Amino acid sequence: MTAVQERTWTTVCRFEQLLPGRGVAALLPDGEQVAVFRTEDGLHVLSNHDPFSSAAVLSRGIVGDRGGVPVVVSPVYKQAFELATGRCVDDASVAVTSYPVEVWDGYVRVGSP
Amino acid sequence: MTRTLVVIGNGMVGHHLVRTLTERGGDWRIVVLAEEPRPAYDRVALSSYVDGWDASKLSLAPVDVETRLGDKVVEIDREARKVVTEQGFVTDYDALVLATGSYPFVPPVPGHDLPNCYVYRTIEDLDAIRAHGGVNGVVIGGGLLGLEAANALRLMGVRPQVVELAPRLMPLQIDEGGGALLRREVLRLGLDVHCGVSVASVGEDRVVLSDGSELPADIVVFSAGVRPRDDLARRFGLEVGERGGIVVDAACRTSDESIYAIGECACIDGRVYGLVAPGYAMADVVADQLSGGAKVFPGADTSTKLKLLGVDVASFGDAHAVSPGALEVVHNDPVSGSYKKIVVSDDAGTLLGGVLVGDASSYATLRAYVGRPLPADPGSLIAPAGVANTALPDDAQVCSCHAVTKADIVAAIGTGCADVPSLKVCTKAGTGCGSCVPTLKQLLTSCGVEQSKALCEHFPQSRAELFEIIHATGIRTFSQLVAEHGSGSGCDLCKPVVASILASLNSGHVLEGEQAALQDTNDHFLANLQRNGTYSVVPRIPGGEITPQKLMVIAEVAQDFGLYTKITGGQRIDLFGATVDQLPLIWRRLVDAGFESGHAYGKALRTVKSCVGSTWCRYGVQDSVGLAIELELRYRGLRSPHKLKAGVSGCARECAEARSKDFGVIATEQGWNLYVGGNGGFTPRHADLLVSDVDTETLIRTIDRFVMFYVRTADRLQRTSAWIEAMEGGLDHLRDVIVEDSLGIAAELEKAMAAHVRDYADEWRGVLEDPVKLARFSSFVNAPGVPDPSISFREERGQRVPVQLGIPEVMAR
Q1: Total beta-carbon pairs less than 8 A apart between chain A and chain B
Q2: Are B3-102+228-290 and B106-224 in the same CATH fold?
Q3: Contacts of B813 in chain A (CB under 8 A)
């Protein structure tokens, strides 16, 4: 038997509401804030919480790549985080939570981590 | 026992001697007797006095010795070893140094002593020329000093003509070919030059030449050479040269063994040198002799490199090929405005000297080869490609101002100096005249230090190159630009730069279409991000002038939204603590009351600060507030490589601190002075004078050109001061481009600015009128009305301030 992981999904917005190459903030039912990014290679969701400034701002960072790896750069002190994993490119000991995401019937849904 | 040294004369050379001797220590009591009324100053830089009329900028480091200013020596009693001054001061000496310098030669033509005749040698001379003023001027003498005098007159608003007896300009330093090019370049600047004629007479409003022609002249400046001041030596029996100058031996000793002579008053090896470098060398000899050493005069290096009226001129070694058998190799390109000649030995094996006019970039390298075997065949050394520095011998002097050799530079690069600024700090090279900076760059490159100008990993181009590409190709999207001219998907360095360039090129609203994703958070939300994730709001208050009604609107908005309120340094009001969703509500009320974006969030024009000006101030000479408002409204919203600040002061008291701004305007009785390249911040810097006494129309046209040239050619995050410093040719080059239009781009720059002024629209009004843009100002995409729960406030001194968000989990680096 394979263990089935229970996952709760939260619908946050319609896909068209997302600007390519930009993020938005969304509020999960448990009060957690996430940052939802739409890039060329799809959707990514990270915690909105910037561990370097403690401010909830990662959704407002610039999206791009570092050496080909898609990243978002914190608008406060400019550290880069990998969009796919949440790992901090500038400090290997730091990472933010990464969330599953899917488009379902034109709507963006964020899953629990 | 303490011995007494008396130094007569307090010019640069006398000062250098006293300074060198005191630095060596020793037991000399030093007394300086000076005829001039002010402490020693940098006479070589005299022409820069016109830039700001601030004599303190010419000051030399003071030396703590007994100095009597404004008291001339009238008697030397060589028997009793005593000197007596005009005011009756008497002192004994054990050693006496004559450093009396020289005086300007004024040919005894009729009218040479009229009240409109001046010479060009001291600060007092320049003050007098300025006070006299006039429309037309004539400079008699087309040498180095004459051309500097002509330029000074030009900067004072006088139209100068130059009269030179020799058939060419600067006959001492350069040859016929170089002189012809220099003349052509100078004529291009609108300066009239008359060579091969002398002055027959001077009248109150004209100068009559030997060929019978007349030149209008409200003011006449003589700079027809200098003569040594050897009158004291003559009067008290010291030997003087046939053509003047106090005769000294290789130890700089006169015919009296306790008396020395140094600098322009001395005749050494039968020659009198009118340059400061040989004078310093003589002072070093005497300092060594007086300290018990046996140093002798090493011979003079009369190499010079300077920029005259925007034209580079250099002369080194045997420039006139007087060495027996010397050969001349010439490369003359009148099209690109470059004349180069090198003088080589009869076997073409050794470099003896040379002349460079127009393009003196190879001066530092070539000069280092004088007296050495040539590194390549002579023709290739002056070919446009130039000469590589890897071939320079290790002991070749790269920086002659601070005697730094190639080996010193290479060693510094080896210890980690990776760019020119760090080499300057490490070795002092390049901090004197700056002519070796190109050589420093080449040495860095030849040592394998990459001088990358790439903007980031996605674009190998610099910001200026990207600007040109976008401008020329008409590409208006980031995706097309990065696909065709870069790689990858961009980053936080290149995206805002491209957004800024697009904005500078009038590409509509900064949040329109794809542009919105390129903006950093400040430009994306048109507000300034603060440490707790909230934003601050700064409405534009042009020139700092505001009505009580508008002040009340700001007060009500601040009160209703609970915003912390503070006056900024730029004479406006900053409202802190707004959340993303509050920004449109705040701006709705501000825009309705007639406010518009202050662009405090952008790399753009911030404010034009002003003093209260002639409307109210008892001392103001112009309406500084009126001009500040006009300038702020003209340049508002213009995106630039970095923030741009400006100021306007209504008089020379400078209450608006305009010289600490990127461009600062100071009122004069006649109009306005424009200063550029100032800033506060990490490395404060005063702005430099670009033009003076211009009318408002000329002023605005000049600022238009300056700002647009900066927007187009500066690097990312490069303030105007660093931009000018990094510019080859510096302020002179900038003035050529902006004022003289040497690149022929002035009309285009003005056109670009006119388009900016025409197309300006308030960014916040643009957001409020567009539901799509407005929708982005929400806290959460799925809960627009819910405020960010991580933000909270406490009260301090009666206002709301952020509650610190706990200690960050990790420390910011």
Answers
A1: 128
A2: yes
A3: 77, 79, 90-91
